[in-house]
């Protein structure tokens, strides 16, 4: 299991990129541009997710001094 938050974010981005490759491949195989349109939407969502996640990661690092996922328990009472 990953404990570093940066590694977790990179893993999520890798998953989204693999979905994009699959969508474009299916679109090419079928012959329509629908998969490419969905891929553009996935890229847009991935960019927004990355910017928000990095902002949260920086805020957590400033408060806690660590980006270890096990140590971040801000929402727990």
Main attributes?
2 helices, mainly alpha, 77 residues, 74% helix
Can you walk through the features of this model?
There is one protein chain. This protein has 77 residues and is mainly α. It is 74% helix and 0% strand. The protein has two helices and no strands. The protein has helices at residues 5-30, 34-64. Helix 1 runs antiparallel to helix 2. The longest helix has 31 residues, at 34-64. The radius of gyration is 16 Å and the shape is elongated. 3% of the residues are buried. The mean pLDDT is 82.
Task: Give a short synopsis of this structure.
This protein is mostly helical and 77 residues long. The protein has helices at residues 5-30, 34-64.
Could you report the average pLDDT, rounded to the nearest whole number? 82
Strand content: under 5%
The assembly state of the depicted protein chains is single chain
Q: Span between N and C termini?
A: 24 Å
Strand elements, count: 0
Sum up the overall morphology in one term: elongated
Helix content: over 70%
Number of helices: 2
Instruction: List low-confidence stretches.
Output: none
Computed structural class: mainly alpha
User: What series of H and E elements makes up the topology?
Assistant: HH
The value of Rg in angstroms is 16 Å
Largest sheet: none
């Amino acid at each position: 299991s990953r404990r570093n938050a940066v590694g977790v974010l990179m893993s999520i981005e890798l998953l989204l990129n693999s979905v994009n490759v699959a969508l474009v491949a299916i679109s090419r195989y079928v012959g329509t541009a629908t998969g490419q349109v969905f891929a553009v939407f996935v890229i847009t969502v991935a960019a927004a997710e990355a910017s928000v996640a990095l902002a949260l990661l920086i805020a957590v690092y400033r408060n806690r001094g660590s980006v270890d996922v096990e140590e971040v328990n801000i929402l727990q009472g």
